[in-house]
Amino acid sequence: MIQYDKINNQILSSSCLTCKDECFQPPNKEVPKVGCCSYSPTFYLLEISNMIHKDETFFLEAILSNPKSQISPFHITVPANIHPSYSKTDSDLDLSPLEEDDLRHSHSICQFFKNNQGCTLHPSFKNSVCRSFVCLSIEDHLNEREKQPLQAFTHYIKKEESNFQRIHEQQLRNLNADLQTSPVAVINYFKSLKKTQ
Fold this sequence. Notes:
two-stranded antiparallel ribbon; single chain; mainly alpha; three-stranded antiparallel beta sheet; 9 strands
C-alpha cells in the first residue's frame, strides 16, 4: 500500500490512483478527481535550490514568473487553480469562513497536476508535504508496526526541509538577499553552493 522512495525521499501509494478519502472527493462530476492534489504547494529553499540546479528555466518560468505566485522573502506559494464550477455554487448558502474555504478547496486543482499523469513535478521539486502526506484512508489500513516507519520517514523528510531552510535562510539574510527584492542574488547564491560542493 505504501512505498518508501529513499532516492527521492518521498512516500508513494498506488491507492492514490483510486482515492477513497471522503475529504478529497470532487464536489461534482465536472471537477476532475485529483485527491490531495487540490493543495496549493509552497516551495521552500530546498526545492528552490533543487530547481535552480536541475532546471533553472522551470524555476524562472513556472514558479518565479508565474502570474499567480505569492512570493515571500524565503518561499513561494503557487495557488491551485479553481475549477469554473465553483462560480456556480449557490451564493445564498450561509457558510462560515471555514466552510467557504473548504468549498473553494474542493474545487481546487494544483497547477502541476495533469489528468492521466498526476503530479508533473520532478520529485526533488516537491515540498515536504507533497513528499510525505498520507491521507487517513490509507493510514487507517496500516497496523501499528507499519505506522512506525511511516512516522519515522515523514519526520526525516520534514526535518530535511526545515534544516535546509533554517541554514540557508540565515545565509541569505546575511547577504541581504531574498526572493522578493533580489531573486537573482538568491539564484546566484545557490549556484555558488553547487560549485563549492
